[in-house]
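PROTEIN DESIGN WORKSHEET
SECTION A - STRUCTURE
LENGTH: 260
TOKENS:
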């Protein structure tokens, strides 16, 4: 990637910084990230396990700029709660398929076996959480779930607002791959949101890790059916961001928290 130009465009009280970037296929794609009144956000947030996450302010929203990797819940009084169940089997037999409330590390690339948590290959990818684990058993939209106090699992409206800030407000949220014209997916991947932590997902069968290196799947806190929930999907080669409600809660996917 080689940035070739940079400019600021003023829109009300927001500044959209854009830069033209040349990719390997010589396509010229616009990338953008939003900053509120030229203020960069250098704050960090810590989870109950003392993991530290970078944050980013996009318009009036504040997001984590890294995938969650916490392994314990946080009680309402700020103390450490129960451990999140960990299925480290290769076939889903240690709670993945039966309890469906577990987390998993990624599999080593090209394998179907969960990797070693200390392997440098996994640094920066975070953990994969089944929906019930991410939500800490709640089914309430905007629940805190595994997030630190003062943060929550994003709702569909949170994601829609993010897309409005990065686009022109005309995005069709219900389409399979929206925001193509505005390059919203590109903005999220290459801007300060840091959406290139392409962890893929662990299938609900428990024995299969998929889409590693080319995709990132974010849980929302919104059910689409009793066994399914809405998610957003970034693909390394796509300019937009997909929205899907047909994904099994028993799948393991990444989590990004948004500040209350």
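SECTION B - SEQUENCE
RESIDUE ASSIGNMENT:
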């Amino acid at each position: 990637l080689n940035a070739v130009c940079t400019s600021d465009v003023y829109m009300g009280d927001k500044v959209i910084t854009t830069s033209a970037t040349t990719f390997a296929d010589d396509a010229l794609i616009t990338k953008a990230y939003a900053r509120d009144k030229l203020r960069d956000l250098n704050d960090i947030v810590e989870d109950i396990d003392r993991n530290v996450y970078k944050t980013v302010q996009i318009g009036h929203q504040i997001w984590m700029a890294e995938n969650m990797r916490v392994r314990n819940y946080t009680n309402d009084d700020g103390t450490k709660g129960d451990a999140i169940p960990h299925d480290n089997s290769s076939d889903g037999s240690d709670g993945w398929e039966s309890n469906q409330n577990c987390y998993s590390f990624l599999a080593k690339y090209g394998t179907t076996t969960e990797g070693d948590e200390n392997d440098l290959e996994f640094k920066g990818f975070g953990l994969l959480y089944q929906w019930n684990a991410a939500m800490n058993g709640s089914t309430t939209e905007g629940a805190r779930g595994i997030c630190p106090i003062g943060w929550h699992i994003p709702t569909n409206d949170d994601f829609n607002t993010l897309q409005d800030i990065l686009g022109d407000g005309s995005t069709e949220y219900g389409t399979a791959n929206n925001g193509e014209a505005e390059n919203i997916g590109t903005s999220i991947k290459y801007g300060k949101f840091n959406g290139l932590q392409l962890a893929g997902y662990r299938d609900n069968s428990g024995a299969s890790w998929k889409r590693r290196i080319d995709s990132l799947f974010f849980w929302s806190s919104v059910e689409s059916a009793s066994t399914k929930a809405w998610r957003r999907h970034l693909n390394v080669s796509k300019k937009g961001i997909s929205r899907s409600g047909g994904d099994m809660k028993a799948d393991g996917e990444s989590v990004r928290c948004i500040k209350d």
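SECTION C - NOTES
The longest helix spans residues 156-166.
The chain has a mean pLDDT of 80.
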